[in-house]
Structure formats: C-alpha cells, structure tokens
Write a structure and sequence with these properties.
The complex is a heterodimer of chains A (167) and B (439).
Chain A lengths: L3 H11 L11 H12 L4 H11 L3 H10 L11 E6 L2 H4 L3 H12 L12 E6 L11 E3 L3 E3 L4 H21 L1
Parallel strand pairs in A: 1-2
Antiparallel strand pairs in A: 1-3, 3-4
Helix pairs in contact in A: 1-2, 2-3, 3-4
Chain B lengths: L18 H6 L4 H8 L4 H11 L11 H6 L10 E6 L8 H8 L1 H15 L3 E6 L4 H16 L15 E6 L9 H8 L23 E5 H13 L1 H7 L7 E8 L5 E6 L2 E2 H7 L9 E5 L8 E2 H5 L2 E2 L1 H6 L8 E6 L4 H15 L5 H18 L5 H14 L7 H26 L6 H7 L9
Classes of the chains: A alpha+beta (167), B alpha/beta (439).
The complex binds flavin mononucleotide, iron/sulfur cluster and FE2/S2 (inorganic) cluster.
Chain lengths: 167, 439
C-alpha cells in the first residue's frame, strides 16, 4: 500500500495536469515511491499503476526507460559518478576509480553491508563542477577530490549506522 | 555598446532567485508593460522577430518565427513548454539560469503564452538537478501568490498556468517531441515529424517548445526593444549568449557574453588554459557538434555564423576545451558510448549504428583496430545521419566524422602502435582537478 504521505505527494503532482491526463504524473509518482522504498519492486509498480488507473505494463515501460529508476535493490546510498567527456577532462574517471577502490566494488555492485552502490552516470548538467556525483538521485556533490570523497563516504556510513541503530 | 550580460546580470547573493529581488532588478515589468499598454500578441511576436533571437537549445531557429507558426483563433487548449532538460554533455547553463534567475524564465514563458494564446505551460527540468526543480517550484508559488500566474493575471482577463515537470535521466527527452511524450507519462521516444508540435503537440494540441535561455531573453527584448537586442550581438545573431565552458581551462563555468565575442576573449574570461598548456581542440556547441582544432577555433567569434563557417555549430553554447594532454581516440570513445547508451532504439540506423560506432572506436582505442576501420567509421556515420526520426542519429555521427577529419593521424597511430599518441601518464596529469577550486 502506498503510504499516506506518498499519496498526498502524488495527488499534488496529478493536479498539475489536465483532469483527463493523470498518467502524466507517473514519472513523479515513481520517483516518490522510489524515494520512500529505495527501489521499485513489481509490487510498487503495480501500486502506482492502480493509483493512476494505468495498465501495469505501461508503468513498467516508463520505469525501465529512464535511467534514474532502480528496478533492482540498491544499497542505502546509490552514488552515481559522471564520467562523460567534459567531466573526464577534469578528473571524473579518477574520482570514479578512487571511489570504487575505496568501497571495494565495481560499477553496479553493492557493498556487502548493503550501504553503497556505485553507478556510472552520464552528463548531469554540472560539468563545470567536475568531478560530480549524485547521491540517491537527489544530492549533487561537486568538485569531488579524493579528500571530499573520503568525507562523503564517512558521513554516509555514519548516517547508515545511525539508521541501523535506530531500528 | 558594451552590455555583455542580460540574463545573469546583477545577480548577487543567495537570494537573487527570490521574487522580491527579481522585481527590484526590474522583473515582471515587461509583462506589466504588455498588459498595461494592451500590446497585441502580434506586436509581441513582431518585437521578438525584430530581435533576431535564435533558439538557445541547439538548432538556433528564429524564435519569433517559431511563435508565429502557432495557429491563431484555435478553439481549445494550446501549450507552451520550456526545455530545461539540459543533458547535452558540456551544457550546464540552464541550471545556473534556473538557480539564480528562475523568475526571468517564468516571465518569459508567461509572455510567450500571451503571444501565442496558450493558457498553460510546463517546464521540463533535467532529472539530475533536484534542487533546481525544487527551487523552480518555489518560484512558481511566489509568482502565483503575487498574481503573475493564474486566472486573471494582474487583474486582466489573460490567464496562464505554469507547472514544473521533473525528468528522470534520459538524454533523449531533450528532443522536443520526446519531451512531450515524457510529459504525457510515456517513454521518451521522439515522434515522426510532420506533424510538427505547432499543430500536434502536447496531448495532441498546438504546442511550442523553447529552451530555458530563449525564454529568459524575452523580457529584456520587450522592455528595451528588439532592435536594441539585435544590436548587442551582430547581424543575424541577436543578443547575448550564455556559454558553459568545461574542460581544460583554469575556471570552468558559466559566462554570458555578446554574440560575436572573440573566442580568445571568452577563453581569457575563463582564466586561460589550465597549466598554460596549448589548446588542442574545442567542441564549441556541446558534444553533438563537430570538434574543431585549436588553431581554427582561435580564429572564431562566438556566434552561430562564425562557428558554422568554421565547420561546426554553436549548438547549446557548451564549449568543451581540450588541451594537448587529451587522447582524441579516447575522447571520441567516451562520446560514442554516450550516444549508444542514450539511443531510444526506435530507428535501426541509430540503434544498431551507434553500437557499431562505439565498438569500433573502442577496439581502436584498445589496440585492436584495423586501418580499414577508419573508413568503415565514416561510412557507418554517413549511413546514420539523415536517416533517423530525430537528430540523435546525426549527433552520434558528427563527432565521429569530425574527429576523423581533423585528428586522423592519431587514429592511425593507435592502429599502428596499439597505444595512445599521448602517453597515459600525461593524460592523467592533464585531467587532474585542482583542489583550490574545491571550495
Ligand atoms: C537528442 C537531442 C537532445 C536535445 N537536448 C536538448 C536540451 O537538452 N535542451 C534544449 O533546449 N534543446 C535540446 N534539443 C533541441 C530541442 O529538440 C529543441 O530544438 C529546442 O528545445 C527548441 O528550443 P529553442 O528553439 O529555444 O532552441 C535536443 C535535440 C536533440 C535531437
Ligand atoms: S534517431 Fe535514435 S534516438 Fe532518435 S528516434 Fe531514432 S533511435 Fe531514437
Ligand atoms: S559531463 Fe559530467 S556533468 Fe556534464
């Protein structure tokens, strides 16, 4: 079941479009559900489909087309590093290699403790701030030197540990 | 005249994006002028035509002309959409425009709505810039509360509603018909044209799509007149342009200058070449545009006509600077990977061709290329370009052709010696970031 909070957020999105065009809110709805659950299971897709009155397969089509939806479980923090050419000219590849080495994983892998997933990303529209990486699709981190990557990883590890402790 | 910036002028401090600040800079005066003086929609379009404002999203199409394609007297909904999808590698100007001056885009869109008789608009914002999307929504709330958006704008019977739509990571949604499909809640696959959006657009209704920066230029044109805007630039290239400069310069970033400004002056504004090294190559308009060798680039002025004459395109104004530490084969390999990844798969030449191009360049880069491959690369590119539904096919082909045209010897070196012409440690040194920038 979609949470009350998610439904409120989705309703706000539906209101942006003409009354007979609820489907327009599907991208936002998927993003809202993914934010709450970290990834989109088949059940999640079905719930979104029911809520918007769409065929489930149409929702799957959307979810699988756009890069930022995760149809498989990811770690608590998904780190997407941009390695496209403009970033690569200013250390994008180095940042990605450093991060993977530090976490001991390759692209699309998750650390054994389930905290981090690393992905290779395409241009994020922030090439002047290279190297850039994105945390869970939302938080953009700029000028990611080795030192700043170290800081970010410790900050996120600590936050994951707190969440674990809180449960 | 030496006005160099309009869109990014006088933006100071964290609050420049707020409505109050925008009004203090003269914001929403253009809209007031139109409504107070009861300018007709035709008069607004005529002013935009006079300015020779050309679309800032890539193709450089004259904006006033595009607006005049919208059917008049059409019964039913019409839409205006803003393209803030900004996924073209090297482009990061719309992010800054929206971060620091969102109301200017909103005002431009309202005026466009008035000029074309649209009651509703959407701004499609690139998925990776969540903060920008949130801020734009906040700016919309401010504009609604102040009566600039809604049913009876500033007490008149002109009404316009505007909403933000957040993308989720698909470069192809920057293509205008893919963008419309995406707003409709579908996969972002480009449509066959014709029909063009002006007759069959969002939800099948007449629609006009412009880039963020294009809309942002409109209020200034209305206040100061189209002639004045044209004068800022050079003939056929009206006004200023916001360039995003990335790569091997000392200060990568966003710079607004008059169209027609020498490339060398722009380079100077960016603090010159990093480490004082030599300019090897430049892609002047985003990764889809042909690359130019440094010496040709140094002769150019930054405007549509000069760059076209030199054999490339101004595109989105994304200037990618490469110095002598770059391996051109590796650079092309990464770009080809991108187009292969982002092809939506609808057309066979693009779906298959982009993969083929990438695999070939990859082979050459990894020392397994053959001399014949260089000609095959050209042939495959020729067979993609112009044979697809949208311009992504061309965007994949143009870099390949231009890299081979200008830097063929580097590709040949790779095939012969099975390694880069530029030693790998030199490449690494060149792409180091400078920590002083990490503020
Ligand atoms: C693959 C592809 C990607 C594009 N990406 C963008 C983009 O990110 N932003 C943009 O404004 N235009 C982009 N365009 C161009 C748009 O289709 C359209 O021409 C433009 O938004 C029109 O606005 P303008 O006339 O103000 O330039 C892209 C085109 C193609 C073929
Ligand atoms: S050219 Fe490529 S991206 Fe464009 S519609 Fe065809 S397959 Fe899709
Ligand atoms: S290339 Fe990395 S953000 Fe644009």
């Amino acid at each position: 079941m979609l949470s009350e909070q998610s439904r409120l957020k989705i309703d706000r999105e539906i209101a942006k479009y003409p009354p007979d065009q609820k489907q327009s809110a599907v991208m936002a709805a998927l993003a809202i559900v993914q934010e709450e659950r970290c990834w989109l299971s088949n059940d999640s897709l079905r719930e979104v489909a029911d809520y918007l009155g769409m065929p489930a397969v149409a929702v799957l089509e959307v979810a699988s087309f756009y890069n930022m939806y995760d149809l498989h479980p990811t770690g608590r923090f998904k780190l997407t590093v941009c390695t496209n050419l403009p970033c690569a000219l200013s250390g994008g590849n180095h940042a990605a290699e450093y991060l993977k080495h530090k976490l001991g994983i390759e692209y699309n892998e998750t650390t054994p403790d389930g905290v981090f997933t690393v992905k290779e990303g395409e241009c994020m529209g922030a090439c002047g701030d290279a190297p850039v990486l994105l945390v869970n699709n939302r938080r953009m981190c700029s000028w990611m030197s080795e030192q700043k990557i170290d800081q970010l990883v410790s900050e996120l590890s600590a936050s994951a540990a707190r969440e674990q402790g809180g449960k | 005249m030496s006005i160099q910036s309009i869109i990014l002028a006088d933006l100071q401090g964290e609050k420049s994006w707020r409505l109050k600040d925008y009004e203090a800079r003269g914001g929403y005066k253009a809209l007031r002028k139109i409504l107070d003086e009861k300018l007709t929609p035709e008069a607004v379009i005529a002013e935009v035509k006079k300015s020779v404002l050309r679309g800032r999203g890539g193709a450089g199409f004259p904006t006033g002309l595009k607006w005049s394609f919208m059917p008049r007297g059409y019964q039913g909904a019409k839409y205006v959409c803003c393209n803030s999808d900004e996924g073209e590698p090297g482009t990061f100007k719309d992010r800054d425009i929206l971060r620091y001056n969102p109301h200017m885009v909103i005002e431009g869109m309202i005026i466009a709505g008035y000029a074309m008789g649209c009651e509703r608009g959407y701004n499609y914002i690139h998925g990776e810039v969540w903060d920008v999307y949130k801020r734009f929504e906040d700016a919309l709330d401010e504009a609604r509360a102040a009566g600039y958006l809604g049913k009876n704008i500033l007490g008149t019977n002109f009404g316009f509603e505007l909403f933000a739509h957040h993308g989720y990571g698909a470069y192809i949604c920057g293509e205008e018909t893919a963008l419309l499909e995406s707003i409709e809640g579908k996969k972002g696959q480009p449509r066959y044209k014709p029909p063009f959006p002006a007759s069959f657009g969002l939800y099948g209704k007449p629609t006009t799509i412009n880039n963020t920066e294009t809309f942002a230029a409109v209020p200034w044109i209305i206040i100061n007149g189209g002639d004045k805007y044209l004068d800022l630039g050079k003939p056929n290239n009206g006004g200023t342009k916001v360039f995003s400069v990335s790569g091997h310069v000392n200060r990568p970033g966003v710079y607004e200058v008059a169209l027609g400004t020498p490339f060398s002056a722009l380079l100077e504004m960016c603090g010159g070449m990093r480490g004082g090294r030599k300019l090897k190559a430049c892609i002047p308009g985003g990764s889809s545009m042909p690359v130019l060798p440094g010496d040709i680039m140094m002769q150019c002025t930054m405007d549509y006509d000069s760059i076209a004459k030199a054999g490339s395109m101004l595109g989105s104004g994304a200037v990618i600077i490469m110095d002598e530490t770059v391996c051109m084969v590796k650079a092309l390999e990464r770009l080809s990977y991108f187009y292969h990844e982002e092809s939506c798969g609808q057309c066979t030449p693009c779906r298959e061709g982009t993969g083929w191009l990438y695999r070939m360049v990859h082979r050459i880069e990894h020392g397994q290329g053959r001399m014949e491959d260089l000609d095959v690369l050209n042939e495959v590119s020729d067979n993609i370009a112009g044979r697809t539904i949208c311009a992504l096919g061309d965007a994949a082909a143009l870099p390949v052709k231009s890299f081979l045209k200008h830097f063929r010897s580097e590709f040949e070196y790779h095939v012969e010696h099975k390694k880069c012409l530029v030693p790998v440690d030199v490449q690494l040194e060149g792409s180091k970031i400078y920590v002083e920038q990490a503020c």
